[in-house]
Amino acid sequence: MLKKIAVAGALLLGLTAPALAVDGDGMFYVRGAGSYTCARWLNAGPDERINAEHWWAGYLTAVNRFTPDTYDELGNTSVETMNENLTRICQQDPSQLFAIAAHRAIEELHPTRTRKSPNR
Q: Do 75 and 113 form a contact (C-beta atoms < 8 A)?
């Protein structure tokens, strides 16, 4: 399912990228599990949950790539804790897009992110 959405304030707070990839009206397409509602995440079975986890991991990789002074936004946070954070955020507004919830969860982790590669 593909959805065209407005860039929500949640996507603009906290994390800054060199440039936002949006059209002239501030719109962008969300593909895959990011276009699910939070209600779908909350009621997902194991296969759909794994699909959504893969989606947020890919989204997190993009955020890592385009956020200055960041190696890994997840830092020392486990996948399980990230999923718990997503569940908490989704329970607050089950109608919001999973992409918005994922970004909010990542924003919460930003202060404790890993800034430099541990291999350097």
A: yes
The structure tokens 């209600």 sit at: 39
pLDDT at position 20 is 57
Look up the pTM and report it.
0.81
Burial status of residue 36 (CB atoms within 10 A of its CB: 0-12, 13-18, 19 or more): buried
Q: How far is CA 31 from CA 4, 14, 46, 98, 109, in A?
A: 9, 23, 20, 11, 23
Closest CA to 80 of 104, 61, 53, 106: 53
What angle separates helix 98-109 from helix 79-92, to the nearest 10 degrees? 120
Residue 6 and residue 26 in contact, taking contact as beta carbons nearer than 8 Å: yes
